[in-house]
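Please fill in the sequence for the structure shown.

STRUCTURE ENCODING:
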């Protein structure tokens, strides 16, 4: 049985990022369904599936649904899984990692479900392991194993295969990290949710290891985040190397030689700047970003000849570094800098505490709720009013 011409796929995202991934899928010509809590479903042919993995900036992985059926007892589960064309998806001898979740179902024991699914794979491979249940944006620790996701909800069993392999935030550039690094998918999400126009300047005065500004440079230059990495689907028996080469070539043709507007990154920590520069060099965008070791009080917009742009940043917020009574003063000082030097600019600030955001004395709207390193955080967005705070 040959692989399907169209895949029923699901772009897994961190909490709150599904609407952004849906917009990305639309831009790729892949009509998404309505966003769900953990991602967004879509249909794609082979080229579309490959393109989703290569181009998506805010998704953690792309799953492909193999089958969905009712399974209220182990007999039903065993019969249906035994009939699946596993050899169309998994090469003989390839290691498999099973991730099983059971919710509101008669089959509620994940280990017992995994045991039955393993039996269906016995003729194909004896290298089947049970992966721990994790949230959709958590790391895949199965190495080169093919991840198979089994979900039981209200006695409906859905079996999916991971087409991505290593999580999609692993662009390959962030080897050097500063304190409390921001995941690449979240960095891209902040830029998209803030509404930054890549034709205008961008400033990040708390750049850390440079994730936001590097993602901004990649956006500005239209560099596909997955253009130079490997994917799990490349080991599928039906993998079409010619199609992937076409997708990569089309992505490369869209790239621009340089960003249109200045991208400025600064941080008071010399080690952070060193890490950010090294990451930008690996990403191939070091020439598009100006890195400076400086406090937030020294933050300035680029030369006056440039139009207003956006300040998108992830300041320290206590829980992730060291709690300090100085944080309120830091945010207040940051707000003063924004009002005095960035009037009319768009601003997006990620923080774990709305009270800290209030210290900015700006009219900002909560726009995105997600998590960073397990900490609930929110993005607040608005336009800087240069008048004095009331």
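FILLED IN BY: designer on duty
SEQUENCE:
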């Amino acid at each position: 049985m040959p692989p399907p011409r169209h895949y029923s796929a699901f772009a897994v995202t961190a909490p709150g990022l599904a609407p952004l991934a849906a917009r990305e899928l639309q831009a790729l010509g892949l009509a998404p369904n309505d966003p769900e809590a953990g991602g967004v479903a879509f249909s794609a042919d082979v080229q579309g599936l490959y393109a989703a993995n290569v181009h998506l900036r805010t998704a953690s992985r792309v799953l492909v649904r193999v089958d969905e059926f009712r399974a209220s007892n182990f007999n039903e589960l065993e019969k249906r899984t035994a009939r699946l064309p596993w050899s169309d998806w998994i090469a003989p001898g390839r290691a498999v990692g099973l991730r099983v979740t059971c919710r509101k179902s008669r089959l509620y024991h994940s280990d017992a479900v995994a045991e039955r699914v393993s039996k269906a794979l016995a003729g194909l491979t004896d290298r089947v392991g049970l992966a721990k249940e994790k949230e959709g944006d958590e790391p895949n620790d199965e190495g080169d194993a093919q991840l198979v996701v089994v979900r039981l909800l209200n006695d409906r069993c859905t079996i999916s295969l991971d087409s991505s392999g290593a999580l999609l935030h692993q662009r390959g550039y962030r080897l050097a990290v500063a304190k409390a690094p921001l995941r690449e998918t979240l960095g891209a999400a902040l830029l998209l949710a803030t509404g930054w126009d890549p034709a205008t300047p961008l400033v990040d005065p708390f750049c850390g290891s440079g994730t936001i500004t590097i993602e901004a440079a990649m956006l500005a230059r239209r560099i596909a985040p997955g253009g130079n990495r490997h994917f799990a689907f490349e080991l599928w028996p039906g993998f079409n190397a010619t199609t992937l080469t076409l997708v990569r070539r089309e992505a490369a043709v869209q790239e621009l030689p340089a960003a249109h507007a200045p991208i400025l990154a600064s941080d008071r920590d010399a080690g952070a700047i060193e890490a950010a520069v090294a990451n930008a060099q690996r990403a191939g965008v070091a020439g598009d970003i100006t890195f400076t070791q400086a406090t937030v009080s020294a933050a300035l917009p680029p030369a006056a000849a440039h139009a207003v742009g956006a300040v998108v940043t992830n300041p320290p917020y206590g829980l992730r570094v060291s709690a300090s009574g100085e944080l309120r003063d830091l945010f207040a000082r940051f707000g003063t800098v924004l009002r005095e030097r960035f009037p009319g600019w768009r601003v997006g600030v990620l923080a774990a505490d709305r009270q800290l955001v209030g210290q900015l004395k700006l009219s900002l709207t909560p726009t995105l709720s997600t998590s960073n390193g397990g900490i609930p955080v929110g993005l607040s967005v608005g336009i800087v009013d240069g008048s004095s705070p009331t």
